Amino acid sequence: MQGSANLNLMIKAARRAGRSLVKDFREVENLQVSTKGPGDFVSRADREAERLIKEDLMTGRPTYGWLGEETGETAGADPTRRWIVDPLDGTTNFLHGMPHWAVSIALEHKGEIVSAVVYDPAKDEMFWAEKGAGAWLNDSRRIRVSGRRSLSEAVFATGVPFGAKKTLPATLRDLANLMPACAGVRRWGSASLDLAFVAAGRFDGFWERELNIWDIAAGTLLVREAGGLVSGIRDDQNPLEDGALVAANEPLFAPLRNLLNDR
Fold it and tell me: Which pTM value belongs to this model?
């Protein structure tokens, strides 16, 4: 695997956290039948994974800043660089014993994502990218976005808001606009993996309206380095700041975005 020292550090940290999560995942399946319930256990697994990642990354690069889902933000002596980490993207899947969740690590330099890792431990798939160097799967397979050009042939991914999230009405309108025009929509519960699958050509596009930066920082670079396009759903939105984004290959990007903005 040819990559920078920073990327190799990220991959090592993702694998270490992934091993810990896989071990805990086996225990979660057993906890499904207990009266105690798995919720607290999963929270501990999540926090432990972030502790391992932070230990590896901050030991290797002690001057960098840090932003983690569980531990929040810490400024670094080097104000130009920051790790952005989601140690367990797809917590609900993990909680229910479904093997579709990921470790997401991004490196930001001067406000731009320059290195990215999305690791799927259950399938042992390591998606990674560096700015200007393409997107890759595992050791040596370069990945590209799909070549489909027609909405009627395309399969898209999204996240349907749960609980009291404010974007549910808009998302239902999105589905009503898009589903009659495409081959299908999937809701798999892990935004970082959805974006990695777009980069690998498995999904033709992805959109969501209410995400956190750690959900998408790594995935956006994967898509761009795989030849895809990423933007806010509206012109005035920055995906990493506003949490609303659309990603697709070039032929499908504008048609998808237009449908999402058809009000």
Answer: 0.93
